Amino acid sequence: MLPDSxxxxxxxxxxxxxxxxxETRNYVLESTVIDGIQLSTDVALLGEKDAKxxxxxxxxxxxxxxxxxxxxxxxxxxxxxxxxxRPDLAYLLVHAVNPWGYFHDRRVTQEGVDxxxxxxxxxxxxxxxxxxxxxxxxxxxxxxxxxxLNRMWLLFYLARRGQRRQLQAAVTAGQYNQPDGLxxxxxxxxxxxxxxxxxxxxxxxxxxRLFLLDIHTGxxxxxxxxxxxxxxxxxxxxTEVNQWFDGDLRSMSDGASVSSPLEGMITTAFVRxxxxxxxxxxxxxxxxxxFAVLNALRADQWTWNHLTVVPMRQRMQARNxxxxxxxPSDATWHQMVMARFDRVIQNLxxxxxxx
Length: 355
Ligand SMILES: [Zn+2]
Fold this sequence. Notes:
Blueprint: H1 6-19, E1 23-34, E2 37-47, E3 53-58, H2 66-78, H3 80-84, E4 89-95, H4 99-104, H5 134-139, H6 148-159, H7 163-172, H8 191-203, E5 209-222, E6 225-229, H9 236-244, E7 249-251, H10 266-273, E8 278-286, H11 290-305, H12 312-326, H13 331-354
Parallel strand pairs: 3-4, 3-5, 5-8, 6-7
Antiparallel strand pairs: 1-2, 2-4, 6-8
This protein binds zinc ion (ZN).
C-alpha cells in the first residue's frame, strides 16, 4: 500500500536505503519546521563507485504525487539486489523533491508554486493564456452545494467541441502572473528548485551518462503509467529511448501524450543543464477522471486563497479530495502502479546497460 503520510514515507525510505547500505543525504528545506517536523528532501545513492551511468529516480516533484512516487522507490529498493544491481549503473533515489507539498497533500511548494513549471529563466518568463480562465476555475469556485452553478457552467464549457483540450493546454502550460491561480510557475526559483539543483550539482559530476525518471500522478487512464518525453518524436534521443520501452514513449511536443506541452519542467532542465549526455522521462500514472482531478485542484487553490475564513471541515474535505485525486488508496490501483513500474524500470535498466 501507499505510505500514510510524508513522515511515514520518509522513515520507510531511509530504513530501506540503510538496509542496502546506500549512501544517504538529507537536504533540509529552510524555514520549514512544522509541528516539530523539519521537512527535507532525502537522497539514497546505490551502486558501484566507478559506474559510468547514473539513473536518477525522483518522487514528489508535485508534493502529493509523492505517495505513489515513493511507493515506486520502495519497490525499487526491495527488488534492487535481485534485479537492478549492476556494475555499470549507479542509482540516485530522490525522495520528496517538494516535501512541503507532500506534507500538506498539495501539488505546489510552500511558495504556492508548481515546481514543474518553475525551472525557467525568470528574466524572460513565457506568456500564458491562463488569464481568461482564472475566474471560472478559481475566483468563482465555491464548495458544493453553493458552487453547483459554477460547476455546471464549467461542465457545459468543457463539453463544447475542442474546449477541453484548449483549456487543458492553456491552464496546465503554466502561468507566471497569477499567484492565486492554478499551475503558477512562480516569480523566481523556489526553495525546492534550489535544493534539487544542489542535489544534482553534488551527485551528477563524474558520470558519463545521466538519466532522470520523474514520477507523477493525476493524468491519463486509471492505473496506466504513461512515459512522457519533452523531445519531439523525430529526435534521435527520443528514438533510442522509445526502443527501450517497446515504442511506449509519448512526446508531449507532438500532442501524442496525455500531457500538453509545458514550460519549466524538471526533466527539460535536467537535460539542458547537464554537463554529460543526459535524457529525462516523466512517468505519469492516471488516477481519476480529468474533471474530478481538476475540481480537486480548484478546491485546494480556493481553500488556500481563503485559508483564514474557510472552516476546518471544508479544509479537510479539500485536502481529502487532493489525496483521492493524486494518491488513490485502493489496493487495485496500487497493484497496477507497481506492475507498470516494474516493467518500466526493467526496460530502463536494460536499455541503459546496453548503451
Ligand atoms: Zn505531476
